[in-house]
Design a protein that fits this description.
about 500 residues; mainly alpha; 2 domains; two-stranded antiparallel ribbon; 22 helices; 2 strands; about 0% strand; globular
Length: about 500
């Protein structure tokens, strides 16, 4: 048991490093772009990447999720048969989808506000989608094979290649926004080439109909669910552009990306949580363990939310050689960052609660829950943006994630009931509310000195211990549960 936990910890750390380093390096492109491109041009980049994120769901249509389940389980003895059936099917459908995308180019360019002079960017977009889809299953194979080091190295190589190519094309060769897509495409092709040996090692020139049927049955429900989830992440962009303009969209997107710090925390947790929850789901202490995990996640998440909300303006405006984290033209949107951070925190709550969906294989409810969040997101955007501008779009994102988290909670409690430590969770948010009220009151009176921000942060941390939200022995609880399991075995 000790070796299993040790291996899980090692893999989690490696996945966490790749996620953190990859996301952070990718985030460095935000100040790079916003200090070079005009907001309107950056708005075009934003819209096309929203298209990529959305169409990626269609290109995979749940096959990646299905392959992960059956490759990691004992349902099929021949794992190469599973990989081959999924991979060859994905090759065929990806080529079809890419062709359809290029044929309908003019309509899509119009829908996503891409001017005629940038119409050729859709070709690059289609090729990026194609190679990213073909790389999806090999990456999952590396996870199942517990080759976390290689997985992380390839992911980081992809991001580093993208950054280097961006600098070369934009700074040295003086290319415009097309450089963003050229860099991405080259990095995607390089990634696919690196993965080829792993692909070849798992291939059989055959598509097994029975295997494919099982894959489709399990994976297809994740298509509408994935579409709804992606809608919640990207649909606000075209709505903001439609109700305002490309300049406002560029400002919104640049500040939205500052939520990456909370996204990193949630992404690292998600990579570790899914295999961890499945591994310990049948243990007698599982529900107690999951409850403690949620409490610790909430405390850590709210601490990150508070810290970044207090200091994000200082971080964004901090200048080195005249270059700030985001360009001065984008500073007017900094007020939305705390809202986006809170939205990602609620996304983390939904990830906590979704463990029951995987454990009990209740994937049929996923489209309904995700769909509800997507509908609320769209409706709230159209309702709030005319009133609050981009702040309304940020609140729409927060509202949709909160509704989705609540939905997943009630469904998970029905199939896998857990007694969460709501008293501690309530105290944490009560404390956060007090500190937030003091902070915005101070801002109202024009007092925003670093001293007061630090005082508020210390007040929150002190309150966590003073209200017994984090007892001195709390961090040892999970360790004790795992030790009891080891003793029982």
């Amino acid at each position: 048991m000790r070796e299993k936990i040790k291996q899980l910890t090692k893999d989690t750390a490696l996945y966490g490093i790749s996620t953190m380093v990859g996301r952070f390096l990718n985030f460095l492109l935000v100040p790079f772009y916003t200090n070079i491109f005009l907001p309107a041009d950056y708005g075009v980049v934003t819209n096309l990447y929203a298209l990529i994120a959305l169409l990626n769901i269609f290109f995979l249509y749940g096959l990646d999720t299905a392959y992960l389940k059956f490759a990691a389980s004992d349902d099929f003895a021949d794992k190469k048969k599973v990989f081959s059936s999924a991979f060859f099917t994905l090759v065929i459908t990806s080529i079809i989808f890419t062709t359809a995308l290029l044929i309908s180019g003019s309509s899509i360019n119009k829908l996503f506000a891409v001017s005629e002079k940038y119409s050729y960017l859709l070709t690059l977009t289609g090729l990026i989608l194609l190679f990213d889809a073909l790389s999806a299953l090999p990456f999952i194979y590396l996870r199942v094979a517990r080759r976390a080091a290689k997985f992380s190295a390839i992911k980081i190589t992809n991001i580093v290649s993208t950054i280097i190519l961006n600098i070369l094309l934009i700074v040295v060769l003086k290319k415009g926004i097309e450089a963003v897509f050229i860099s991405n495409l080259v990095a995607s092709v390089v990634t696919f080439i690196i993965l080829l040996p792993d692909i070849i090692s798992q291939l059989k020139i055959h598509i097994d109909k029975d295997v494919l049927k099982r894959l489709m049955k399990f994976g297809i429900p994740y298509l509408p669910g994935g579409i709804a989830a992606m809608f919640m992440q990207v649909i606000d962009r075209p709505i903001v552009e439609h109700l305002t303009d490309l300049t406002t969209l560029g400002i919104y997107q640049a500040n939205y990306k500052l939520g990456i710090f909370m996204m990193l925390f949630v992404s690292m947790f998600q990579f570790a949580w899914q295999p961890f929850s499945l591994q310990y789901a049948k243990d007698k202490d599982a529900k107690e363990l999951f409850s403690k995990v949620f409490t610790i996640f909430t405390v850590a998440g709210t601490s990150i939310l508070l810290f970044l909300s207090l200091y994000i303006t200082d971080l964004a405006k901090f200048s080195i050689h005249g270059k700030s984290l985001i360009g001065e033209a984008y500073w007017s949107g900094l007020s939305i960052v705390p809202i986006i951070l809170a939205a990602y925190l609620f996304n983390g709550f939904y990830i906590n609660f979704s463990a029951a969906i995987y454990i009990k294989e209740k994937s049929s409810v996923v489209p309904l829950l995700m769909g509800a969040g997507a509908v609320i997101n769209v409706a709230a955007n159209y309702l709030l943006i005319p009133i609050l501008n981009i702040t309304g779009a940020a609140f729409a994102t927060l509202l949709s994630y909160a509704v989705m988290a609540i939905g997943f909670y009630f469904v998970s409690q029905k199939h896998f009931p857990i007694v969460y430590e709501w008293r501690k969770i309530g105290k944490t948010f009560f404390l956060l509310g007090i500190v937030a009220t003091l902070f915005y009151s101070i801002q109202f009176f024009g007092i925003v000195e670093l001293f007061f921000k630090t005082f508020l942060l210390l007040l929150f941390v002190g309150g966590l211990f003073g209200l017994n939200i984090i007892p001195k022995n709390e961090l040892l609880t999970i360790k004790n549960i795992l030790l009891r399991k080891k003793k029982d075995e």
